UniProtKB/TrEMBL annotation:
Transmembrane segments: 25-50, 62-87, 147-168, 189-210, 222-243, 250-274, 294-319, 331-353, 359-381, 388-406, 433-455
Entry keyword annotation includes Protein transport: no
Entries under Pfam families matching the protein: SDF (PF00375)
Keywords: Cell membrane, Membrane, Transmembrane, Transmembrane helix, Transport
Protein's membrane topology: Multi-pass membrane protein
Subcellular location: Cell membrane
Organism from which the protein derives: Rhodoferax saidenbachensis
Keyword Ligase found: no
Protein name: Na+/H+-dicarboxylate symporter
Principal place of residence: membrane
InterPro entries: Na-dicarboxylate_symporter (IPR001991), Na:dicarbo_symporter_sf (IPR036458)
Amino acid sequence: MLLLCLLAGAAVGSAAPEVAELAFVLGQVYLALINMVAIPLMVVATFFGLRQTLALPQPARRSFMIVVLAVGLVFASALLGTIFGYVTDPGSSLSVANRAYLGSVVLSSAAGNTELSLFDIDTQNTASAVHAWGTFLPDNFFKALALGQPLGILICAILFGLAFASMGKTRSNVLMGIFEAIYRTFETIISRVNLLIPVLVFGLAAHFAASADGQVLRSMSSFIATFVGLSLLLATFATVLVWRNSAAPLLTVLSCLKTPALISLTSASSTAGVPDTIRAMSAKLGYSRGIVELVVPAASIFVRAGSAVYFALLAVFVANIYGHALDGTGLMLICLGATMSAFASAGTSSFAVVASGSVVLSLLNLPVEAALALFLAIDLICEAPRNLLSTLCCCVLIVLVCQGLPSERTDAKQGDDVEVAAPVQFSFTRTSASLAVICCIVLASLIVVVGIGVGQRAGSPGVGRPSAALSGELLVDNPLNTK
């Protein structure tokens, strides 16, 4: 169905661009609904998962492992992207015509941009330092929520979560019930909103077919092929790693990861697949639910392994089209810059993700305009493999952290011969059903009669307030009454 929506959207976008714009607006409504739930879900899941994680054996060691392995996965992805880009060398074999056309696109996008400094350099640096520090450690949790600062929100949520986990069990049971209800509500909202994914796929395909520049796509085909190929290769390796470390067969693992993978590929949002990823890794594959509920929401925003690969290949491609030779120092700068750009793009999408690539380009003294002009044109193609790789790397992080913990699968604790409790059913005879209907009719009639009686009593003179006639007499008899 998703493939048919993709093909139909491309056909409609090519034939009727005005319809494509309407379909694109509907897709943006879906993304707005997902983003509306994403940040609150991350906060509540951090509270909920942190409390369960601290109740596991060796909580400090596992918390430290989560942070170290998360940074290590992003750095390893950037390193592999840099090495693969250096070997395949995308953009080095561009023809003169394609290189000239890409240059004209960059120049046309940069035309008319003028940079004005309204403050002196020291004031600008001080303001930037204060803003960066406020992003990392905000002085107001609700301000961070209102501004949508993911890193500040995560730090505040961790601090509040640690305080919540340190409370006694009796005191925190009530809050635990509230957080549980809120958490399940957000899961339900995302699951229902995900039913609109075919509409999103149709809208994005139609919009891309109506607005894409064919010559830009052909000129950047080497980058697209390199990035998509490496992303699929690393995604396959991550799936095999999950399978080798789980007790389930390969087909079972693929079946469990199918839904989160499809949502990551088609939703254009890194948080849309959070509920299904939690369900797949905990309820189906049996990993610790406390670890899963702590890692998945935070990792969907901050562990951007797909973005690290993307930024590394982006830097190699831009360096090649500008004739910038890469040595060992340049490759190391690309690796470090891609890692920093991946964390800097946390909680962002589309334009902001591409703009984060300016970090690695600045380290190499390459034009930032190239990233904004060229890579925004193909971002819809690259967003799907980015999200897929990040989701599967999140699953790998869970597998590595949950080493040594018992499985939580229901079928791992119960045998196949255990009888499952049947659901409670209510059965009615014709007589009892007729009596129930008659009672409902009588009750409804009584409610109507009582309502009429209360209304008549409230409207009668002398009860509750003076009547209209009496009020009129008072006004006539007392002409000095200005009221």
